[in-house]
Structures are given as C-alpha cells and as structure tokens.
Amino acid sequence: MKQMNEYIALVEGALDKALGSTDEYQVLRAMAYSAEAGGKRIRPVLLLMFCRMLGGNVNKALPLACAVEMIHTYSLIHDDLPCMDNDDLRRGKPSCHKQFGEATALLAGDGLLTMAFSMIAGADLPADVRIGAVKVLSQRAGVFGMIGGQEMDLQNEEKGSSISAETLERTYALKTSALLQSACEMGALAGGGDEEAIEKAGEYAYHLGLAFQIVDDILDVTGDEKTLGKPIGSDEENGKATFVSLYGLKKARELASAHSDKALSALQYFSGSGELKTLTENLLFREN
Amino acid sequence: MKQMNEYIALVEGALDKALGSTDEYQVLRAMAYSAEAGGKRIRPVLLLMFCRMLGGNVNKALPLACAVEMIHTYSLIHDDLPCMDNDDLRRGKPSCHKQFGEATALLAGDGLLTMAFSMIAGADLPADVRIGAVKVLSQRAGVFGMIGGQEMDLQNEEKGSSISAETLERTYALKTSALLQSACEMGALAGGGDEEAIEKAGEYAYHLGLAFQIVDDILDVTGDEKTLGKPIGSDEENGKATFVSLYGLKKARELASAHSDKALSALQYFSGSGELKTLTENLLFREN
After folding, report:
1. Parallel, antiparallel, or unpaired for β A93-94 and A89-90?
2. How far is A281 from chain B (nearest CA, A)?
3. How much is the pLDDT for B231?
4. Searching chain B, which residue's CA lies closest to the CA of residue A80?
C-alpha cells in the first residue's frame, strides 16, 4: 500500500498546515490535537484514490480530503463529550474534553466543522466543483446523513435490542456510510467524473460502510480480544442491537459478504481500481 | 420599517420550509424549535437589505439569509449548554437542551451549522457567488471569527476585569461583529457588488457590532430594568470587564458614538441606503 501511505502523509501535512499556523487560541490547539491524533485516514485516502483513478490532480483535491477528515474528527470530539458517549480516551490518548475541558472541546468540534467548508472554498478547483463538494459534504454530514444516524443511534440505545433490522441498517447507513459516500463522491467530483461515476462512487461507499459495520458486529462476538484490542461481547452486555443479535452469526456473515461483493462490484465500473480493491479487501477481510 | 417586516416574514417562511419538512428525527424538531423561537432576525435582514440595495434579487438571496440565521441559532444552542453558559431559558422559552436533552441539543447545533452550507450550495445563484458566500461565512463564523470570539470570552471570564481594552475590543469584534460582517458581505455578494462594495459592507458591520456591544455595556449600568427586561448591574456583579469598567461611562459613550458614526459613514458609500440607515439608528440609539 505504497500509494496509501503516500496519501496519508499528504493529508497529515495539509492538516498540520491548516491547523498549526498559530497557537493564539486554545481552541485551535484542541482542533490540532484531535486532528493529529491519527487514525487510519480512510476517508481522505478514499477521496484521493477516487480523484486519482479518474485522472484528477491529487494535490488540488487535498483541501477536500482535509475537509472530510475534519468532519470525521469533529464528530469524534462531540461523540466523546459527557452528554454523548462520555469517553475519556480516544486512540489511547485523553479525549479532547479530557485534555482541554468541555467548553473548548465543544468549540473545537464546531471549529473543525466550520473549517471543513473553508478548506473546500479555498481549493484550487473550478467554482462548480467546489460548490458541488460543499453540497455533497453538507448533505452527507448533515441531519439527513451522519447527524441523523447519530440521532438514530441515541434512540436505538433507549429501545435496546427491540429495534428492527431495517432500522439498524438505516442507522449504519447514515452513521457510517454517509460520510464515506461524501469522501468517494467528492473524490470523483474532483477527478472530473460525470454523474454516473459519482453515483457509482457513492454506491461503492454505501456498501463499504455497511459491510464494515456488520464485520464490526461479527468481530464483537467471534473476535480475539488480543487481536481486536478491546473486550469482546460488549454489544451483548450493553443490550445493543447488532446484525448478529438480530440475524444470528451465519446470516450476518452472509450479509457482510453480500455488501462486500456489492462494494467490489461497484468498483469494477472504474478502470484502474486496483489500489482501491486492495484497500477495500484489507478493510473488510480483517481480524481487528 | 415595512421592508424589514416583509424581510422577516420571508426569512421565517424559508426557515420553516427548510426545517419543517419532516418530523422523522427529534433532532430536526429541535433545530426547528430553536430556529423558530424568533429574535430580531437582524443578520438575515441585513443580508437581504444589502442585496436589495445593490440591485440583487432578494428571493435568490434568501437561502444565504437562512444560512446566517442558522449559524446564529446554532451558536445560541451551543452557548446555552451546561458546559458553556448553562442557560435554562432563551427568549422566554426553555433552551434547546432543556426541551430536548443535551445530546439532541448538541446534535441540533451541529445540524444547523452543517445545513447552513447546504442552503448556500442549493441557492439559485452563480457558482462563484455561492462559493464566495461559503468562504465568507465559514471564515467569519470559524475559529478566526465568531468561534475565536467565544473562546476569548471564556478566557476573559477566567481573567475577570484584568483584561486590556484591546483584548475586549477584539473579543467583541470576533464574537459579534464577525457574523454581522458575514451577513452584510454575503448580501453585497448576492447583490452583485464588487470588491469595494463588499469591503464597505464589512466595514459597516464591524462598527455596527462594536457599537452595539458597547451600548449593551452602557445599558447594563444606566438602563432601566423595566425597559431593559433584565436586571441592571449584572456585568459588574459578575466581575466582567466591559467598556464601562475599563473606560468609564463618559468615554464608553464617546466610543459607542464614534463606532456608530463610522458605521453610518460606511453606509454613505452606497446610494439608496435609507432603510439601512434607519435600521442602524434603531439598533444603536435604543433603550433596551
């Protein structure tokens, strides 16, 4: 995955540049702290890979890649707050509000969310491509996308294991697939893809997100604690509905496999999708 | 103020349409609850007045007007949260988190902030005008604008009355002027104004915001509780630095007057600024 590592380095360099310019405000330091905490950078890497595959200029698409990573990071900061999941740790480090206090963490999330759109607006791309990216990102990340998924997640927790499989699938689609879709769609846009290419990019990401979540549910039951790095069986303990609790392990595996196949088959629309195929397989056929 | 009332009605109609389409999610109801709670709608009205003054189409600028009001509303929802100002009431009604719970209020703020950019992206305006509006709004509302001002406000509270006049002016400029600037600048953009017109619009709003805040500080000392609708002397009681505590009443009045003059003089650049002049005078020469 030489290309992937190169893209991660590009994205992290650009994030540093956008967030590290001044330490005038504590809130800016909090934004940089969380954005630089790492993670797999899946979304910006997908964006750059789609752009490249369609013949676009990766450097020009870089601000869009930063934008989707900023949205992802803000959602983690707000998710970790005491009124949400109340997590003290994120990627082995104190979560943003543990490090900077709740008020600054709240503002840091707001700041990253807002800056995502500044990044797109300032990109060296045609105005119609930039406004297309603003539209895609704001809709996929908004109340009819990711935020709607977070809201459904809150409601599902109250209802425990009594929710329907349809509701769970919709929750996963909004909570996880939507932002992945924005990444792939913005990549296709920046690469000069036509409507059909953008649609195929979104279709790929939809199934990738679902497959990824279902694999997560399966690993929570079958995984090895050591490989996984977290206790198994936590979903059942929390009375949380999962694809395994709703369908059983066998059917959950079939569904994960069906969504993986659909993701890979959407990729076949594109020529030169080798790197993306490898990345997809690494994400889906995993043990942690 | 016939034009003003007409513009308020336009904005409220458009906000209803954007937020009232479905009650599928509780978070959408929370967004609508706060956006419909009213207030003076100063920012969208300013935007539409600037657009109209420059010969633009008010209906086409309406999504931009909604966007700035959504940003204002989200900032109030997040400001009211327990980790910030912990206010139970907003405009005489339970604040968003009192009505819907903290998690939903957090998401409702995020949802309005995100939707603001969807509104701009979907406007029936040329792509370069829309992307210009995204740039202006995201910068003015971001960490180098409004959010930076909120952060400075938090830091000032810790430092109490020991901050410098320069710091207080910068806090007011970011916390209050920045979003007003985005409103006037987006209005000028949508009206087809050139760079100089946009700059003048921003200059007007900068001084309007400062004058407004200084008048607030003065009324907290000299105001009549009945007219003002809130207890006077609260700033001094909270040990909060204000223009009055830093400069004394006489000098604060001179500064308010100087910024009012500068705001009105920036308006003189434009022909047909009569309505805006009246609005400005109403905002600044007030008793509550």
Report:
1. antiparallel
2. 32
3. 63
4. B103
Confidence of residue A288 (pLDDT cuts 50, 70, 90): low
Q: Identify the band that residue B50 occupies on the pLDDT scale cut at 50, 70 and 90.
A: very high
* A54, amino acid identity: L
Q: Which residues contact A85 (CB under 8 A, 6 or more apart)?
A: A79
Model ipTM value? 0.95
A142 CB neighbours in chain B (<8 A) are 111, 114-115, 118
**Mean pLDDT score, B28-53:** 94
Backbone phi, psi, residue A94, to 5°: -55, 135
Which DSSP category does A22 fall into?
Answer: -
CA-derived radius of gyration, chain A: 18
To the nearest whole Å, the CA of B115 is away from the closest chain A CA by 6
What band does B230 get if pLDDT is binned at 50, 70 and 90? low
Q: Do A135 and B147 touch (CB under 8 A)?
A: no
Question: pLDDT tier at B3 (50, 70, 90 boundaries)?
Answer: confident
Q: What is the pLDDT of residue A3?
A: 87
Q: Are residues B102 and A83, on separate chains, in Cβ contact within 8 Å?
A: yes
Burial of B33 from C-beta contacts in 10 A (0-12 / 13-18 / 19+): buried
DSSP class of residue A270? S
Q: Which carries the bigger pLDDT value, residue B34 or residue B287? A: B34
Q: Nearest C-alpha of chain A: how many angstroms from B35?
A: 15
Q: Do B118 and A135 touch (CB under 8 A)?
A: yes
Whether residues A139 and B151 touch (CB distance < 8 A) is answered with: no
In chain B, residues with a C-beta closer than 8 Å to the C-beta of A83 are 81, 101-103, 106
- Calculate ∠ Cα B149-B110-B27, nearest 5°: 140
| Structure tokens, B55 | 């010969």
Structure-block tokens of residue A61: 């698409």
pLDDT digits (tens, 9 = 90+) for A38-65: 788 999 999 999 999 999 999 999 999 9
pLDDT at A283: 86
Q: Do A120 and B134 touch (CB under 8 A)?
A: yes
Say whether A151 and B121 touch across the interface (CB within 8 A).
no
Look-up of token digits 């979903």: A235
Residue ranges and CATH numbers for the domains of chain B are 2-284 (1.10.600.10)
